[in-house]
Amino acid sequence: AKVRKAMRDKGVKKQQGRSCIEVKKGIHEFVVKDRLHPREEDIYVELQRLNKQLKEAGYVSDIKAVLRDVKVERKEHLLSYHSEKLAIAFGLIATPPGTPLHIIKNLRVCSDCHALAKFISRSVERKIIMRDANRFHHFEHGVCSCGDYW
């Protein structure tokens, strides 16, 4: 609390997480809960479809990634619309099956998005290459090249 107050007092702001994906020679940028993309409705429908499919396959949200003191259901909701998830959903609907997805994240990918990318790479048989602030992650067949150390 003291650090946040000191940051506010000095006018320091936390950088907002952004994820970019290149599709058909265009860069598409997403932020958490982004509703500005022209295909936002399709993206959210795909994200809901994926979430349902993955939960049926055993995926459980990593709610430890949410540092706020809120109920479990709220934590799961907060995790649902991270920028990298929106970028992945867009990539899945905007590219042909089997096309690798290349995503750039300006911050470190959270543990929940990392786990979700592994699940998606296995369930939809797509390679996902994500560069975050620390390293490249190559997700394929449910495994990440970082060995889950990031």
Provide the succession of SSEs: HEEHHHEHEEE
Shape label: globular
Strand order of the largest sheet: 2-1-3-4-5-6
| Proportion of strand residues | 15-25%
- Chain-averaged pLDDT: 90
How would you sum up the major sheet? 6 strands, mixed
For the terminal residues, how far apart are their CA atoms?
A: 26 Å
Number of strands: 6
Low-confidence stretches: none
Structure report:
With 150 residues, the protein is of the alpha+beta class. The chain has 5 helices and 6 strands; from the N terminus they run H-E-E-H-H-H-E-H-E-E-E. The chain has helices spanning 2-10, 40-56, 72-80, 83-94, 111-123, and strands spanning 18-23, 26-31, 101-105, 128-131, 136-140, 143-144. Strands 2-1-3-4-5-6 form a 6-stranded mixed β-sheet, with helices on one face. Helix 2 (40-56) packs across helix 4. The radius of gyration is 16 Å and the shape is globular. The two termini are 26 Å apart. The model has no long low-confidence stretch (mean pLDDT 90).
